[in-house]
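dude i think i finally got it to work??
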Amino acid sequence: MDYGQYRDAMRQARTAWTLADRAGHVELQAWIRGMQSSIAYWSGRPREAAQFAAAGENLPTRGTICVFLASLEARALGRLGDVAGVEAAVRKALAAREKASVDEIGGVFAFPEAKQHLYAGSAYAWLNCPQKAQAEATRAITLYEAGAPEDRSYGDEAGARLDLALAHLHQESLDGARAAASPVLQLPVELRVSSIGQRLGRIARILTEQYRNAGEARTFLDEIAEFQSLTTRRQLPAGTIKD
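look at this
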């Protein structure tokens, strides 16, 4: 998924579901439904993403996977423009956080609070609710920066910074948007996952449509173009799978 190989990613997820089903591991099944939701979302299929998340929510889970699924649903519904659905899903995620027990597995199978705010910010960014998007993205960044090194995620932090940039653009703050995106544009090529490129593509479209006569916007666009150009040259080595 991080390399943009969505068809292969979904194939891996289907196989994982089969194995989790055979093992009778409901928590893992729910987490895989969440991964399928993410793959569908980044593949440009938000309705399917929302359906996968809802299917996972129907499974009896106890840990933070339930927060993960509700947050995924909010993000997908945001892309669909469903205001009421987003608000309901965000509330559901908050309630699930309060009820969640300790994760059975943890690690990458857990869903930290920072990521919950990231997904809420993404949902509000799609709805063009810049103040809510800015608040959620800022909270996500703050939590990531304050967290332990092993709990940080460069991809998620980058996503929060780019959602913050979108929120600034929707509030006509070009300086704020460029400042928010600047750390992301400095990421080395090997860390430039597909989702970062998609978010930068959204920013580039807004810059082109709304700021075409601003010199700073042209510079910003050039920086994004260079980032994207270097990223597309990266290839997944033959015979390997990114874990």
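The chain is about 70% helix and 0% strand.
im so relieved honestly
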